[in-house]
């Protein structure tokens, strides 16, 4: 089976291209690469109904399993008063969403997924947690602080996400695991420091709360997004993958097909 993975499509952020172009392009890339199962690691759009409609349209066109976890942008509250918790509950009911639905591929493999959440541990130690919580630095504001309205602190949400994933992993100990999160779960995938801005804003990129899970469970692949890097790393027999498409300004070329084909990673399991 050939599994493809991509993240951070941001189908509503291109200055010229509409979401249908993203859809048509991803369909072409997946078909050309002969992908049997597609994973999307979050940040599809800034509006949850558009994000899920994109998943449904992909599934209809490709006739293969499409699985996703929401990213932080996918939780941004809506103008109609829909809260981030409402959106979380919406995603949980969807069969394509991995939040409460680990996916068993076969006798040997399963997929476990969660958004995860950031715990501030990747920020420079010179910043106190009370300052990080405000999400403001050098005149910039981390937009989740404005557009997400969770009732709990980020550090608590991070621990809860790790606990949620651990419970799923405990039910699948006879399987090799593909873990998919949106938030970064390995310190080598944050923005390199020292950095004038990301010494601070790396606080909102990743979490250390998953570290023990990699030691305790047979995770073979770990897919993440959020940081808008395209990077892979093999460490302790685990392949870490960050297949972000990202914003148009971050692309190497102006061609969406080339960028999407470059961002999407694939690997084969038996």
Automatic annotation (TrEMBL):
Domain of life per record: Bacteria
Gene Ontology molecular function, alphabetical: hydrolase activity
One Pfam family cited in the UniProt record for this chain: Metallophos
Name of the protein in its database record: Metallophosphoesterase
């Amino acid at each position: 089976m050939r599994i493809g993975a991509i993240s951070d499509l941001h189908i509503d952020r291109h200055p010229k291209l509409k979401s249908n172009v993203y859809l048509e392009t991803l369909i072409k890339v997946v078909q050309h690469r002969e992908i049997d199962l597609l994973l999307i690691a979050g940040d599809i759009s800034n509006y949850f109904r558009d994000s899920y409609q994109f998943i449904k349209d992909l599934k209809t066109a490709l006739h293969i399993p499409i699985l996703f976890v929401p990213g932080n942008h996918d939780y941004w509250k809506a103008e109609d008063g829909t809260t981030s918790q409402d959106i979380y509950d919406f995603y949980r009911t969807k069969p394509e969403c991995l939040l409460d639905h680990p996916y068993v591929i076969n006798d040997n493999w399963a997929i476990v997924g969660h958004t995860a959440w950031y715990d501030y541990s990747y920020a420079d130690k010179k910043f106190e947690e009370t300052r990080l919580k405000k999400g403001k630095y050098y005149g910039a504001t981390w937009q989740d602080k404005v557009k997400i309205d969770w009732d709990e602190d980020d550090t608590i949400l991070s621990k809860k996400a790790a606990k949620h994933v651990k419970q799923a992993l405990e039910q699948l100990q006879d399987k090799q695991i593909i873990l998919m999160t949106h938030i970064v779960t390995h310190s080598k995938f944050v923005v390199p420091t020292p950095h004038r801005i990301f010494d601070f804003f790396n606080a909102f990129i990743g979490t250390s709360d998953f570290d023990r899970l990699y030691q305790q469970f047979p995770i073979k692949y770990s897919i993440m997004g959020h940081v808008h890097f395209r990077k892979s790393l093999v460490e302790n027999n685990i392949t870490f993958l960050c297949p972000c498409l990202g914003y148009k300004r971050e692309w190497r070329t102006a061609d969406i097909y080339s960028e999407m084909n470059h961002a999407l990673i694939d690997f084969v399991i038996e």
